[in-house]
Amino acid sequence: MQASPIIIRSIEAIPFIHSAEYPSHKSFETVLLNDTCRFRQPAVHELLLTAAHILKFRFPVSRNRLALERLVQRCIQHPKLSKNAVKEIPLPVLEEQAQRLFHTFVPDISPEQANQNRVFSLYLMMEDCLQFNPTAWVKQDIEALGLLDGDILHGSFYQTHEHQPQALTSILMEHGYQTDFLEGASSTAEVPSDLLYLTCRHLTHPFPWVSLLEKSDCQALLQMPSEDLPNNIHPRQMGALHKLSQIHHHLSTCQAYQALSITPDTLAEALKKLSSIITSGHTLQGPQKLIRPVYTLALVEGATEEILLPPLAKCLGFNFLEQGVLVLPAGGKNQVLQLYRQYKTLLNIPMVVVLDQDAEEIHTLLQQDCRLDDILFLLPEGEFEDIYDPTLLAYTINTCYQPHLPVHAKQFQTDQFTPPASGRSEQLKVLWRELGLGDFEKTKLAKNLSTQLLQISQKNTTESISIPPSVQTLLEQIDSAATRTKKKMLL
What we know:
- This protein is an alpha/beta fold.
- 51% of the residues lie in helices and 7% in strands.
- The chain contains 22 helices and 7 strands.
- The strands form 2 sheets. A 4-stranded parallel sheet has the order 5-4-6-7, sandwiched between helices. The protein has a 3-stranded antiparallel sheet with strand order 1-2-3.
- Strand 6, helix 18 (360-369) and strand 7 form a beta-alpha-beta unit.
- Helix 7 runs parallel beside helix 9 (193-204), helix 15 packs parallel to helix 21 (442-457) and helix 17 (333-343) packs parallel to helix 18 (360-369).
């Protein structure tokens, strides 16, 4: 009979997974939540999908938990657990089980690889610390461990901005995590207690990132043309593999990385070196959604802006990927307000909020909440579709949709940057019906426009497309915000 998953506070009562040799066969049994569970070995694409979730820009506490839940639920064979049951697994148990699943894929790890895995985990942690407030991260992590504000033992923890090493040590000990860096706090006085806590958390159950990258399966995938990839490998998984590979290569080419040792006595120097490597200005190519680290967050209403802002920036000579600019769609103007309020206390980086003209009320509310370094931008043209260049729009429709009657730029022209009174989006819906093109899909058109814009940007000319002055100003502000953040982090 399967035991009901219960979150247990007492460390003695938590049924930790037995520390046995990692099996090399395709499935294994382990004790989870007082029950014997059978897991199968994960496939490489499942590990890469987990990596893609972990590399994604999202607050680390919820992001990492969700990624590990998905991996465990995919690989458990008996008994089957529902999503709700997996959500109830205590975080230390979940992390240890996920680590074991990774290690079934790379069971034989040398001491040198083990150290590289630890350094790689700290590198990813330091990237997140550049983007997110470590104090907020620690607080939410402790809450995720089951310690609430009313807890008698740790209630004082929430009353100060400075987290005391003794309190953090007791929290980690209570949940079975290593505490050596916090216990040696006197020898790491240069390192804030928040970073000491996060270091303990990351090095208790580090994932074998480097060992995974050096596995023959991953090496074969890296060298494989995209058209030859197996059906179960998706672009976002390959994006994660390429990103991890580039980080590993970047670390390997830095002489400081070779001699990095992670001990309480050397931690301060190791973190400084890792921060220096991260902010060294090296550009890691890869998918726009896997930008790391992010130096400026452009918070927009929908997918159209997410798709088109980066290629528009390229037409003006700005490279969002190199500058560390992430465009994040909120899913609507009301969601922009919610997401901004959520992120403003969590982020170390500036936000540029882009709203359509009809979001004046949201813009007013944001002005009351706005942080000093953040930028609010209300699009004067109306909706984002209203800034489309008529010539480019007509060319894209004719090329990508091949209507039975050709479309001409003059059909979209009123004033140079003034769309019709009804808005260009409504105009396009009518045109789609007249041409028999079916339902108008804004996102599909944006992707087709993006392809054309990228081709234009490769010609190093802005003469082929008209970009409204307001949008040029917006893109300049985003680029400047990222440049300032980079310089500040380099100091």
